[in-house]
Amino acid sequence: MYSILKAQGVLPLVTQINIETAQIVLQSAADAGIKIIEFAARADNAKEVFTQMIAFKKANNLDVKIAVGSILSVDDAETFHQLGADCIVCPHTDLEIGNYCFKNNIYWIPGAATLNEILHANKLGAEIVKLFPADKIGGPGYVKAIRAPFPNLKIMPTGGVTLEESNLKSWFKSGVVCVGIGSNLFSKEILLDLKYEQSLQAFQNLIEVVEKTRN
């Protein structure tokens, strides 16, 4: 999973979507060459939508992994793992969730804000740590500062990452492995009436700008 995220450079996130929109997102992501996306399980019908996403992915033989985000408890981690999640993403670091993921061989990306929290997540076994909310705790300058004494930190900033070249360039220049991007890729309004061509173009543009700003 690490190699996929590092190569892709970005983990696109969608949340609070209906089944039809979820299918559009999956198909267009796969067609654009996206290898992994995150579905944040924040809505009441998240389990139902995710179940349909997995069924659609299998039925159409799509080469795209699905990480499930906003996982707050070990019970939710177990539920979505059994439903077919390829990766569990949390806004925080929870030992129980981490232990469950390691025991069941599912990739775990916990969230952290401070250097001590990031190091603690690493000690618990996390390879990549989600820096959240990245823009509110210092941005790229913060990442650069904490990586100075710990250059091997593998960080994925989420929160405040935009599609602007200057923004992405500053994050990658700070040494992050990849970035997480959600509402700045698909706003709530866009997701209400998302069309396939629109979604495909968004993913293609995302890949292009990430490759451009990383190199």
UniProtKB/TrEMBL annotation:
Pathway(s) of this molecule: Carbohydrate acid metabolism
Cited Gene3D superfamilies: Aldolase class I
A Pfam family reported for this protein in Swiss-Prot or TrEMBL: Aldolase
Keywords for this protein: Carbohydrate metabolism, Lyase
Subunit-level organization: Homotrimer.
Similarity comment text for this entry: Belongs to the KHG/KDPG aldolase family.
Entry protein name: Aldolase
Organism of this sequence: Flavobacterium azizsancarii
